Amino acid sequence: MTYYETQLRKIRQNIYSNQWQLDTVIATRNYIDNNYAKDLNLDLLSHTRFVSKYHLLRLFKRYYGQTPKKYLMNKRIEKSKEHLKSGMTVTQTCFAIGFESLGSFSVLFKNRTGLTPTEFRNEQLSRSNLNSDSGTCEP
Amino acid sequence: MKVTVISIPVRDQEKALKFYTEKLGFIKKLDMPLEGGNRWLTLVSQEAQEGPEILLEPAPNHFEPSKVYQDALLAAGIPYTQFDVDNVQSEYDRLTKLGVEFSMKPTEMGTAKVAVFNDTCGNNIQIVEIL
Predict the structure, then answer these.
(1) Where is the VOC domain (chain B) (predicted)?
(2) What is the ipTM for the molecules in this complex?
(3) Distance (Å, whole) CA B20 – CA B43
């Protein structure tokens, strides 16, 4: 066994020994992954795991390094990029990923990517046109 | 400031290019000749071609401390860097079939699953899946 693996096992024993906590945060992340487009309800999840909502938030932050809310927003932005690349309109995308207002979606998107959803979409579409054009221009 | 390039030191750029494209599945992005047969050689991942580039840089051949550091990491099994995959087990199976050698089999580490392989150019590389 390498030095690295030995160290990893030691760390695992020290900080990842609480399987119940691990199961709880992993279930929470899966829940967000599968329901990111819905109005998420962490109360429900905390009840099913017999843990208070605030304890769940703290656990999630501890094991994933970010709050469930931030994780959810990152997930939604990632998904919105896929939708916009595939040609979906900005409005359709906004509702498909669970945002209720176009304004808050645009602000968050610009914040994270440096571009508005419309700018991002236009850039992606012109890029894919360029790629398909260059195919036909090859000598 | 933006992150666009992450460098990985390699002993042989051509061999590294082959390994990283043919086995790992990266795509060559830039390839510019520099002096002394060295190249500015970068790769991108297939699924994020506009994303950050990996620079395969021949530092260990030209700067002794880089070689010493790389050798020490390799011997200790410590990954030089890591790449995200959707499924560590299936990537492990795929790469093993291609003859890639792993120093650490898929191992759960809290909220992640990791494995470590040898890139044949002087480095351990870790693949990681977030659980």
Answers:
(1) 2-130
(2) 0.90
(3) 8
